[in-house]
What we know:
This protein is α/β, with parallel strands linked by helices.
Amino acid sequence: MLKFYNFQEIIGVEGIINTKWQNFNVYTYLVDGMLIDTGSKSMENKLLPYYKSSSFNFVVLTHHHEDHTGNAAWIQKELNVPIYIHPLGVDICSKPINYPEYRQNIWGCRKPFNAQPLGQSISSESYEWKVIYTPGHAEDHVSLLNEETGQIFTGDLFVSPKTKLIMTQESIPNIIESLRKLLTYDFQEVFCSHYGYISQGKIMLKRKLDYLENISAEIIYLHNHGYSIEEISQKLFPKKYPIIIFSEGEWNSFNIIRSVLMLKNSSLKF
Length: 270
């Protein structure tokens, strides 16, 4: 199912996938001749007619994950527009990707495509967008800031104000640093790839940063007092979400704790 939203010059398209475990969603955004992300291949029967009828000059990908890049190969072949991603994502996107079966069942199997590396900025028809490197959720993750309008596209950096579980490859310390970096810029409206539109975006990103800093401090405190990862998880994240089971642990609260403790003795301060 697709839902369409209009935010002045910006069109948001939410793709919603219903499964027996839970519902999943992901947004793509179209602004000023620029398409941000392409949605999942599992939604192609809905999204491709929309792309055929839309006008855009190029695609920017916030990162390489399959729910964001699923239709990039089709767009490149059929619409012949350039596709841009952070340099770390170029090689990843050029090859078939091996990811768990549950993700293939939800998002589909992304085909390889040839992306071009993003620079420090990119120009759409009327605006210049600052490309800000914001790793943590993925190593090639970027956010796009319009300093003229105060609007920012944050990919999967925000998602929710209180993170309860993350993927194995994610890093809470890196997410914290990326949030700190974004908060040094002047913006208000945030467009998240899963949460959607956030009018008081800077406030919400600060709220998430505060939460992650506080939970990181609690994790370190409990670890220093002899708690195991399992005991810390039970104390701080007692709720067990269905995705922990059907992802076979790729999504887990343990991953938050491990990523924080990996840098416990570094110079990173919480």
